[in-house]
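Bumping with the actual sequence this time:
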Amino acid sequence: KKTKMFAGNPAPFVMELPAYHMPTLSNVLRSMWERGWSFIKKAGTIILLSTIVVWFTSFFGFAEDGFRMLSEDELSLSILARIGSVIAPIFAPLGFGSWQATVASITGLVAKENIVGTMGILYGGEGTVYQAIAAAFTSITGFSFLVFNLLCAPCFAAIGAIKREMNSRKWTWFAISYQTGFAYAISLMINQFGKVFEGNISVIGFIAALAVLCVMIYMLFFKKYEEAKTLKEA
């Protein structure tokens, strides 16, 4: 259902589709090669460089004896940990308020694939990565983390494409804020309502999630249709 800002009379739309044809093997292989090579170039440049930066900032920091490489039990003193710890409380209501999960979400702005590499570095201490992640996340908080990173603002390349299509700085920021806010609201409900089944209810968090749910239900089922007004360009 459209909200007030995007409401309007439905317009007829007709698109002529070409006849379906069985794909040829050469076209399939060429498409596979182009997409695969594109990912290899991306993995060898953007993702690799981002992973190196994450590794350096997570294993180097200022200890009592100055700036140096840190051991496994000193990672909380790293550059990345200090940055992530400042932002982490924002994600606490979503269930993943640790600096590691926060940093992983932020690196996803460079490329969503970076989240996997960042998690591998930050949770790749003693034991396996899977064991460390399983110890840091419950099934509810893990699902909340996945949903947030799926729905939140895309990578910088996609944001640049949004800006070119919108041709407006204001509406670009609106699109980014809307996506991130929607992702935050959905993850908040997943975590807070999930805690009910785990028997670990946060009263304030549950009330906030319930309020978000009520607003969404009102917007979907009870808000009356209103004509959209002309949007002003920024």
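The tokens above came from a reply further down the thread. The radius of gyration is 22 Å.
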